[in-house]
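Example 410, ligand S-adenosylmethionine.
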Amino acid sequence: MEKNLDRDEMRELIGEAVRGEAFRRATFAGATRGAPCEWVRVVVRPIDLRGTRHFQFAYQSAKKAVTKNFLDDEVEAPLDELIGYGFAGVHITAGAEEIDIRTSRKGRVHVGRHMLKEAANAPELEAHNRVKDVPLPEGKADALLEIMGIATPDGRVRPTMRAKFTQINEFLKQLQHVFDDAKLNDLGRDVSILDCGCGSSYLTLAAHHYLNNVLHVPSRILGVDVNEEVIRKSVERADKLGVANLFFECRRIGTVDVAADIVFALHACNTATDDAIAQAVRSEARLLLSVPCCHHDLNKVIRADGPTEVLRPVLRHGILLQRTADLITDAFRALALRIMGYRTDVVEFVATEHTPRNLMIRAVRVRDLAKPQAAEISEYIELKRFWRVTPYIEKVLGEAFQQLVKATAL
Ligand SMILES: C[S@@+](CC[C@H](N)C(=O)[O-])C[C@H]1O[C@@H](n2cnc3c(N)ncnc32)[C@H](O)[C@@H]1O
């Protein structure tokens, strides 16, 4: 059922749905057109704390995440405040019903309501210790986690898969964190994602589920890998899940002709990370999330000589040389992305106990190349001069990048 509402009717609808017995979750996201607000997404859901129903408000901004719990009789004020921010999209799940409220730029409110097919499976109010605020919660039977080989049929994460499970959850949190910022919410079509070096497709399957079924963002994902065997297994898993818009191909990164909005590369080996970055830049992807691993390229060429002589005490030790090469490689990558129009951060996406390869290059496309960043190009040229290297990222980004650098160097 679809209809238009005025703003008071919208307030009433949200208030009733959230306070109702069947309420499961409400996601407020998209542009805000009301009171000033630092949040990019707020998720409200009921939780059971010591036997009493509470409402958990999970606020997310570009810089931080804040969670607050309210009792039934305390929820009115924070809910009113939240509605007052005027998020363009509000998605509510209440029992078997899905309610989608969209507010246009002109303030017109449109509501769509439909019943879920799997009504009978709508989850009951969950105990707080099971509703961990993570994209893929554990603790209950879950076909996806079972088929991925991460959890047992009764929903317990296998000890050997704990690290991968945590990596995937933290990776997806990063995706959620920058999703709106990358303007992926209102494309008016499916979001297209390329997972480079997808391996056994843990991330591919999890991201497909998270976007389509949890965030309700229609998305199609292609996982590519050079290893035929992992692709065969991934296809098998996708078939078992029986979901649409999930594809796998045995391909080398960089040879894939797909206009991706988002590019993932989780532990794509050595220069495969650079190939994934170049693929993202070429297809003008709005978002790149890349977690590099096993850097070998610069390790072979940097040395204490000339301007770097002063670093001899560092570079004479194999492990320090390796780590220095890792840092320089990732610094070149981040800088190249900035030059190519991406706002780029390097963050620790997960604690080192879950993987020592825990640096993520997170890049959101913010401008086109008509406005090159002269300061950043100069930094790049200086860094190259200091280390006397040409990083692989420069080679693989090709003409467009090399011309920019050359023009500034002259
Ligand atoms: C360490 S695994 C990571 C797999 C997966 N992303 C994950 O984190 O679970 C790296 C994968 O990248 C693949 N790979 C390495 N170089 C590649 C390339 N140039 N093109 C496509 N796949 C590549 C490997 O076959 C391997 O499956």
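Summary: Residues 227 and 250 are 7 Å apart (CA to CA).
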